[in-house]
Amino acid sequence: MINFSYVRPSSIKAAIDALNKDSASQFIAGGTNLVDLMKRGVASPEKLIDVTNLPLKNIEQRGNTIRIGSLALNSEVSEHPLIVQKLPLLSQALKAGASPQLRNMATVGGNLLQRTRCPYFYDTTMPCNKRKPGSGCAALNGYNRMHAIFGASENCIAVHPSDMCVALAALDATVIVNSSKGERKILFKDFHRLPGTTPEKDNNLQRGELITAVDVPVNDALSRNVLYTKIRDRASYAFALVSVAAVLDINNSAIQNVRLAMGGVAHKPWRLTEAEDFLKGKPVSIDNFRQAATIAIKGAKGHGYNNFKMKLAPNTIVQVLTTISGIS
Amino acid sequence: MTNKLFSLTALSLNLFYQIPTMSQDNFPEKEEKPSLHESRRRFLKQSSALTAIALTPAAVVKAAENKLDEKAAGYFEKVNLSIEVNGTSHQLSVEPRVTLLDLLREQLHLTGTKKGCDYGQCGACTVHVNGKRVLSCLSLAVMQDGKKITTIEGLAKEDQLHPMQEAFIKHDGFQCGYCTPGQIMSAVACVREGHANSEDEIRQFMSGNICRCGAYPNIVDAIMEVKKNGGAL
After folding, report:
1. Which domains can be identified in chain A, with CATH numbers?
2. Model's pTM, two decimal places?
3. Which residues does chain A have within 8 Å of residue B95's beta carbon, measured at their own beta carbons?
4. Which residues in chain B are contacts of A104 at CB distance < 8 A?
């Protein structure tokens, strides 16, 4: 690992000032992704600003919103009574991610910012537009089994690896960021980006901004009939081939409301709004779920090794919906 | 007990020289092992010291050529660090890039914690920081300032092995032993966290520790037993 200098500020302002002072500096919290990237030579900040002393660890309810501090650990969030009771989908998704050791280190803010696990991004001898803009995409015609079927571009077909973010997308969360200009709120759907011509940018966070919290709206419907299902190569501790987060609000066998998001299929958590619109007001039935899954997969494109996701994705959607509606 | 503990922390070595059973008698005499152990270690240390000598001047020269003297000075700056490891306080000075794993192994000579993949994928380097299990290979030592670390060497109480160590021996929860320190640290945490209520739950919450020998069923048995006995954790 290339050496770097290190500071540990104790206030949000001091942390942001330190970042603004040095263009080659970067925040570090859990370090589970950044230290890995630094060891491999993919990231090489000259200064690390350790934010773990900042007072951003609280998880609390304010009215109809649960605010999760950006430094709350993935393990703490997944087992916090408020989250388990009121946002069980988020708890399930967090527990599906990484390993207990990593969840004890990784923070909510860091999870939002984790980089893709595309092997070509990690291999500094290979072209990768995300790592080195303009160098090409080795995954496009390479071994792209883990890669995107939605929203990819000719420049990048990497996927966002987070489970937590798939749940937060389904739950309509908001990301709160601070900078020297004050506070800014970013809707979850606007936080992560599609690769387009600038795959080096994973999200719309601006230089000088620090994620301080994530707000998640709560209501009773979000705590019933929810399920996060992750399909992967081994039963635990593997990234998703496909994952589905679903919330189903059923009244008299009719679907009042539904939230659907997928992971492992795009450069960002993939919300299935068209499938949701189709299901709203319809009776609970396998046939409706199948039709919704067909709508959800519209526009998907395989790249060879990941063609199986074109079937795996809709099948997983149907399985999740039938399971939580109790008709399976 | 020393021998027994040793068997847990240096099993990979034992495997090649010994071992039909786990009886204490089958382990080498105390005086034999350290000499083999130390000479290997001395060799490794010497070679890494040589590497450092070979590398440092080049880096500094390059920095000077590029008029980066200030930056070079910054790169080699050490940071003060105060940590407690297995009950002993240490005042140290480390480069920011040193991981907790390397600090434990190379500077504090606690080589029970293993370097498996070094990329956070195998769990061999699992230690407890303030009672929580973490991966020491992805933890920067400077970020542990003021924290309490427990490694495999800190589990036993004087002559008494930790119940989880006893259970791993009893249930044969290892073959080569390389992943064992990480498995045991993770297993102790798994029970403490309340995630050892069924075989399925144990498998789920031990999934961050890979065992290439495939001792998983015996590891699960060992954890189940400690959980059942309410083993002094």
Report:
1. 5-53 (3.30.43.10), 220-325 (3.30.390.50)
2. 0.88
3. 3
4. 132-134
